[in-house]
Amino acid sequence: MRRPGLYNRQHAKQAGAVKGMIGRLLIAVVVVICTISFLVLWTSNGGGPSGFRSELNLDKLWRSADSGGWRPSSAPRSNWPPPPRETNGYLRVRCNGGLNQQRTAICNAVLAARIMNATLVLPELDANSFWHDDSGFRGIYDVEHFIMSLRYDVKIVEKIPEIRKNGKTKKIKAVQLRPPRDAPISWYTTDALAKMKEHGAIYLTPFSHRLAEEIDNPEYQRLRCRVNYHALRFKTNIMKLSQSIVDKLRSQGHFMSIHLRFEMDMLAFAGCFDIFNPKEQEILKKYRKENFAPKKLVYEERRAIGKCPLTPEEVGLILRAMGFNNSTRIYLAAGELFGGERFMKPFRALFPHLENHSSVDPADELAENTQGLLGSAVDYMVCLLSDIFMPTYDGPSNFANNLLGHRLYYGFRTTIRPDRKALAPIFVDLEKGRTTGFEEAVRQTMFNTNLGGPNKRIPPDSFYTNSWPECFCQTSSKNPAHKCPPDNVLEILNSQLGEATDDLESVPQSNSTISVAER
């Protein structure tokens, strides 16, 4: 008679032998599959001693990213009636902040007018508070193009007209309202609309971030794209100046643009002081105290979570690790760098071919307004048209965020977005003298980021940073929400409007420099 314990051990031994043989076979199969996959990936990426994952053909970076069958499309895809003859009143807004903060405010203003069935008064640009520049809307944008492009969406006037009542001319006085930050649509359809109907006009000020970005209505989001990428076109002189700079840069081959956000306001906002000398730290702390809410900020902690802007030297080391050499032409879009040449010298040693709008085209018009709206507009256009764009701090930077969204819409143009949080420990190790494997670690980090192709919008990215998928479509998509609108969409809109007009969607943001047609 078998002893139960012995039987169980023998049985377990036999079962274990069988399981062991099966396990070895499975391991062998996995090894074969992994080896084949490794060889395929190694071959497709060029192979090399530093590892297949970190080898990337730079020629691919100089070209636009893979679209995956998507193309930009912000035309309506469902019933979109034209603005009625009679509206509920007039909407005035004052757009505060810099050029790109104002740009998003203008997009929100058009959408707010559509939501309330209001006539939009040409938005006011509060340039004095930021740039000390009183160019205004007409001084920066093509007003006629703006009004004509949005004729299917909203009525726009340059000023509130006077009315005649009982034989007398009377001005309509807009009642002033302060919208809540990121106000929901319901605020506009209740509080704001009630005041508009009561007074005939409302004046929303300030108007920065005063309409929620995430709206569960793709047609409303597409209207934002029509404003941002089609209706808001810079004036002819700005477009010509920008194109002249791009032509000169590209005459010697590819070029990349970098938004080097190493400026006093951003450094003070981020609370990244420790790399500066005592006098510089005092300046930054004073600026922070005067402009931002009190908050305890520890440099090491801020840097560890990716809240500190990259230094110019760190930017240069990232690019060198990725394979860019010292012949690379770089256009710098930046204000006055804090710390001056002391911080630029290491970067310049790595990449001597650095340019900005003043060095490429020292036009009198631009020389007089390098830090104003004109200089910012030229920087925006050159960065938009560059082969590669790299923002060094895309957190609260409206300039970088708007460009990321615009370049995505403009044919998935390559962007390099450093993951500052992932890079922080790598740079800390370098500062401690641990240089082995530095470039490989940087490459692995950088090649794990999206380089400009279609990608899901993940907070804190805003709609203006990434309007996919609402403002894109696929011709052969099985998902109805992603299908492109019909080829005769303009005929439909024209027939609803009751007039024959030119093509709304010929070119986003340029006369001849950009040609991304969409329907």
The biggest sheet amounts to: 6 strands, parallel
Estimated share of beta-strand residues: 5-15%
Mean pLDDT across every amino acid position = 84
Shape: globular
Q: What is the total tally of β strands?
A: 14
- N-to-C span: 85 Å
Main structural class: alpha/beta
Pick out the low-confidence regions: 1-23, 25-54, 500-519
Model description:
- The chain is of the alpha/beta class.
- The chain is 44% helix and 9% strand.
- The chain has 20 helices and 14 strands.
- The strands form four sheets. Strands 2, 3, 4, 5, 8 and 9 form a six-stranded parallel beta sheet that branches. The protein has a four-stranded parallel beta sheet with strand order 12-11-10-13.
- The longest helix is centred in the N-terminal third of the chain and has 41 residues, at 4-44.
- The protein starts with a helix and ends in a 22-residue tail after the last helix.
- Residues 1-23, 25-54 and 500-519 have low confidence and may be disordered.
Which secondary structure elements does this structure contain, and how are they paired or packed?
Layout (H helix, E strand, L loop, with lengths): L3 H41 L13 H4 L9 E2 L17 E6 L3 H18 L2 E3 L2 E2 L10 H5 L2 H7 L5 E3 L5 E3 L2 E3 L4 E3 L7 H15 L1 E4 L13 H14 L4 H15 L5 E4 L4 H7 L7 H14 L7 H6 L7 H11 L7 E4 L7 H10 L3 E2 L1 H4 L3 H4 L5 H13 L2 E4 L6 H12 L10 H12 L6 H9 L25 E2 L15 H9 L22
Parallel strand pairs: 2-3, 2-4, 2-9, 3-5, 8-9, 10-11, 10-13, 11-12
Antiparallel strand pairs: 1-14, 6-7
